[in-house]
Known about the structure:
Blueprint: H1 4-18, E1 23-25, E2 30-32, H2 36-39, E3 42-44, E4 49-51, E5 60-62, E6 68-69, E7 77-78, E8 80-88, E9 91-93, E10 97-106, E11 111-114, E12 120-125, E13 128-131, E14 136-139, E15 146-154, E16 157-166, H3 183-190, H4 210-216, E17 228-234, E18 237-246, E19 254-259, E20 267-268, E21 273-277, E22 280-285, E23 294-299, E24 304-308
Amino acid sequence: MKILPPLIFLSLSLAGQGLTASPRDGGNYAQQTDTFDAAGGKTAGGRYSQTASVGGIGGTSSAGTRIVARNGYAGQLFQATNLVLNALPEVVNEGETSRLSATATLDDGTISHLAGRDVFWRVDSGPVASIDPAGRLTAANVYRRSSARIEGRFPGKNSFIDLGILNVDDDDFGIYAHDGLPDLWQVQNFGENNPLGLAGADADGDGQSNFAEFMAGTSPTNAGSRFNIELATLPDEPSQTYLFFNPRLNDRSYTVEYSLDLEAGFRPLTNAAQLDFGETRFVLDPNATEPNRFYRVKISRQEQIFGASP
């Protein structure tokens, strides 16, 4: 009975030796990983400290945001050596969503697939309306195909991913939305969300709205660029009226209409002769015998009317 304690001591010593492995180390720590010895007390380094009863199962570790304890392993620490961000899909329509996730390579050679909620997400640049805590990204409305750069952060690592955002509606951007003008045209002329770029505004003060300038193909920021209509008669031909207007562009169609009573409305001008010289169109009305005869030109695309009277 007197020799039992030495035998017990010897058995524990052998068990401890059997569980001992080589030290593990990373850029910020070094630790004996697979022994009860490392997990049964306190270990420390320049960037971390750990106190545990059964390693990572029952204790805690700390090293700022550089190192975390790997759950279920006695006294084991790990850090990410590489972080790859994922988005599904990587090209998304404006106003729709993409699911963000990540894959981390750890310093022990294992791969960790991270859900969106495991990563801190930040919009580095581009039209993104929001990213929720689960990593669901919602694209903002755009006026042309755009890209967004997203940063993902995981303890010890960060990375970036670029997403494409497609424009699917030409009239849904910012304060220019649903005003009948293409958003791209407004941004090109006035920049983003400029009140001077609204359809009803007359930015250059030439008496024609931005909508009218778009329809006519003139510049909304140059008062000298406007749609013009003029009338002329010849003294020896009082029953005929000459109407000419410009600019006449090839990608638009023009219909001349007339009215004898504005309250009664307009009708197409028939039996008229026309001739084009560059961007100017001449129209001859051979039956302009009434004293009050009003004309207007309708430009296709959308109905936009410019009027003139004698």
